[in-house]
């Protein structure tokens, strides 16, 4: 019965819906409304909407780019264009007006722009920030006009002008820190360094560079504005470079300026301060790209400027200054390794340190002596690389070692017995790498083999040029014997192969030179000694083989 009841109820519902559909059709006919096909709305929505998720994301990215250009880029460009226009307005020569009126008008505009930025802060926060920055720059430029850009100076004393500009910079710093704006802080540091150049005083330039470098590091650590350190480093070194280039900022022609020697100590101080901006920040699991760039820029630009100044100024203390630079950079690399386990910062600081030591050696010694000192320096570099566990230092040092050797061959003059140092350094370097190979990241023997292969050719070449021709073969035989002794003492097979290779080279040399030589004593001695050595080695290898079979 229930089934019959349900069926009758369903039939009544269907009949009711049919009647309603008929009524709606009659209404549409009376109103002359065209009936829409089924799923019309769904079809329209499907045709209007993007077909895939990629198209939706592309539309959103385009809208974000458009908003970014319209909201930020236009604001920045507009402020810059407006500032340039006002700058031209203030520098226009007003001949019939008192000299203070343009600056007075500039101060009015600066404070008006500041007031506008405060008014716009609620609704247009980003534009308000740009306005405030533009107002501070205009305030500085207006103060600058009191002394510059006019034949009639409102302020005629340079010290007073620098004092007024310094006051404006302090005001900019106060506003930037109150607003907690890295953008305004960067502007304040730039204006402060510009003030140092305008003073054209060595004391003020060095003092301001130091103060702003320290300030940037302190602020960056407090507010975590780590980009501020890199920004300040760039402009500090640029300020020092402009000062060295005769300060064209105040209208003088480009030339190398004779700076007081104490400026080199300040450059090293800046290197230390800016390195602290990276060293004192919170350590991460791995070095960020920003940290690497900061260390690379600080070491290369800082020491590069240091090197440029010393090479253009002939001072007897230049070797000492570069040795001091070596100590500074090697200490920095040590701190970065022991405290932060930094690979890249350690590498760049330690390589800069040894570059400074190399320059000190070149400046202290005469050619070709400094090539030998540079050669022995390679052992110190290898030892440092083992301590720092750095494969980068090992590879870089080997390339530098080869460059020094070929430079010695090209410019060092006669190759004498001292040049055997290159071969000894290669052997010692290979021994150090094998001795502490567990500390290195090198997973292969390639670098060690490269040093041994270098020694294999360098030592016979040095003996060939340094020993009298009658004793060349004997000296090579002695080297071969030493290699074999090393293989027995150190239980390293590579030295036996080096012994065999040197001995074969000796055989070739004796047969070619010995037969063609007119010195009968040389022929007799060289052939007899070589024969005895070959027979002795043959007996040794025979006994070795017999003992293995027994």
In DSSP terms (H or I, runs of 4 or more residues), the helix count works out at: 20
Q: What is the strand tally?
A: 0
Q: Are there runs of 5+ residues with pLDDT below 50, and where?
A: 39-45
Average pLDDT score:
78
Query: Main β-sheet: number of strands, strand sense, barrel status?
Result: none
Radius of gyration: 40 Å
Order of helices and strands: HHHHHHHHHHHHHHHHHHHH
Strand content: under 5%
Structural class of the helices, strands and pairings? mainly alpha
Tell me roughly what share of residues is in helical segments: over 70%
Task: Report, as a whole number of angstroms, the end-to-end distance.
Answer: 109 Å
Shape descriptor? flat
SSE layout:
Layout: H1 2-30, H2 40-48, H3 53-91, H4 100-119, H5 125-144, H6 158-179, H7 182-199, H8 202-223, H9 226-244, H10 262-279, H11 289-312, H12 318-340, H13 344-364, H14 369-388, H15 391-411, H16 421-435, H17 446-466, H18 472-490, H19 493-516, H20 520-549
Describe the structure.
With 550 residues, this protein is mainly alpha-helical. The chain has a domain at 472-550. It has 20 helices and no strands. Helix 3 packs parallel to helix 5 (125-144), helix 9 (226-244) runs antiparallel to helix 10 and helix 17 (446-466) runs parallel beside helix 19. The model is unreliable at 39-45 (pLDDT under 50).
